[in-house]
Design goal:
Layout (H helix, E strand, L loop, with lengths): L12 H14 L3 H15 L21 H16 L6 H11 L3
Length: about 100
């Protein structure tokens, strides 16, 4: 049997449970999945998947030009004037639904 070393990682319990459910369906123990991930890091000499920010992420106010900021404010005012508004409760409910919270 090959020598092994321990790897300890702290993750959110919910994330661990979700990953375990997927891995169980695939028939792969968590330790094997971690080993596969580490092997791919070595083989590819980096993280084995693309890492980038989503293209449609909202701009931070500090990143906006004055014209972009004015355009965003205009869109918000237009939405209010046309009744396209949501209560805080509706927004919270939708976030919970979308992100399974």
């Amino acid at each position: 049997m090959a020598r092994t070393a321990n790897v300890f990682a702290r993750v959110e319990p919910e994330l661990k449970e979700q990953a375990e459910r997927v891995l169980d369906q695939l028939g792969i123990p968590m330790s094997n999945a971690v080993g596969m991930f580490l092997r791919q890091i070595v083989l590819q000499r980096g993280i084995p998947f693309e890492m980038k920010l989503p293209a449609d992420r909202p701009l931070a106010i500090g990143e906006m030009t004055s014209a972009q900021f004015d355009a965003e404010l205009s869109k918000g005012i237009n939405d209010i004037e046309n009744g396209r508004v949501y209560s805080a409760d509706e927004v919270e409910s939708e976030v919970r639904r979308l992100y399974d919270l």
